[in-house]
Amino acid sequence: MKRSRVVIPGGVNSPVRAFGSVGGTVRFIKQAKGARIEDEDGNRYIDYVASWGPIIVGHAHPVVVEAVRSATARGTSFGAPTEAEVLLAERVTELVPSVEMLRLVNSGTEAVMSALRLARGATGRDKVVKFEGCYHGHPDAMLAAAGSGVASLGIPGTDGVPAAAVADTLVVPYNDLDAVKAVFVERTEEIAAIIVEPVAANMGMVRPQPGFLTGLRELCDTYGSVLIFDEVITGFRLGLSGAQGRFGILPDLSTFGKVIGGGLPVGAYGGKRALMQKIAPEGPIFQAGTLSGNPLATAAGLAVLDLLSRKGTFESLEARSQSLAQGLQKLADEVEIPFTSDFMGGIAGFFFRRPPIRNYADVCAADHERFKAFFHAMLEQGIYLAPSGFEVLFLTTAHGDEEIELTLEAARKAFKKVA
Ligand code: KE4
Fold this sequence. Notes:
By secondary structure, the chain is an alpha/beta fold. It has helices at about 1-5, 60-75, 85-95, 110-125, 165, 175-185, 210-225, 240-245, 275, 295-310, 315-335, 360-365, 370-380, 400-419; strands at about 30-35, 35-40, 45, 100-105, 125-130, 145, 150-155, 155, 170-175, 190-195, 225-230, 255, 265-270, 340-345, 345-350, 385, 395. A hairpin with a 2-residue loop joins strand 14 (about 340-345) and strand 15 (about 345-350). Helix 6 runs parallel beside helix 7 (about 210-225) and helix 13 crosses helix 14. The chain starts with a helix and ends with a helix. The mean pLDDT is about 95.
């Protein structure tokens, strides 16, 4: 880490990798296979980061490796359309009912940035509503901290973001439909879009309360605003049609990433044809990218979607998430530690506090010191959890009964240690 800090800020290429909230020694990963990663010192771990979501069929899956290898042999990038991009766009439009057209980009951030620009261009409005604790990558407009009031205009959440960049971002508590209604009553025709993680997974896992997503859909219909589901994490991880398929709610636009690149750089945004046709070169709203639709990433994405389409895949993936979440809950209860776990599709989450956990304030009130101790007690037993209490556990189809049993055995000891 000392060497990498000399040439890379914080020694990492994305802040959460630096173990900032848990401390300790960052592991440099040498290789991975299935549900396991191996660090440069030869230590092996059962992996629940899974590259923060892209790895859903396990690391180095032979079908994915072969797809990327053969694509590479035909050239790595052309800057011209390829059949693979059409195939991937067709697959996504088949799998996700609300998506009639799709544009591929290179990251979730780019997908969100582009979707916001499209919503603003299509409506001629500037304001955007987001939810405290939801993360949508680092477009300036999304780096708004919640202001003082409940439905306040955003204030810069980081240095380098001008106040003007977040002046049109309204930040409200997750699951607080009344707060969103108040914003629309006050600002009626000003709201271009609501952007929401349909299941929040960047403040740990927080489910939408019954009626919350439906309420957002109704408000956007009433006021002519664009409903954007940020499915960069939930897309193709909660099921082949993502969160929108599970909840039966159709957003106007969706953003994707992670899984559809199979671990290679991909993002995507898509939705109603009438909206997407406004994107250049078909329409007047500009968006571009040198490596968008990259042949290697599209090959990996297509291979992963084919593997995920196999019968029973999501049922068994969710069964493993369930075993893990419920097993952790049982072990925490046995030693009377305040603990809440949850799961959905290929995601599991937990907090060191009792329910209810409805929003960012509830998550902040969890015992993050105890999380830190638990994280290390698991890491030293070969279980690699996400190094932050504001993240989730990402499972893969390579996490079998053995991996879950080993994880729960380690957790039994770790809970005793932090009790
Ligand atoms: P990227 O730009 O990192 O590809 O995607 C941004 C993004 C957008 N929307 C949602 C819902 C996301 O979760 C993300 C990125 N997720 C984080 C994990 N919590 C990426 C990890 C990291 O920043 O290194």
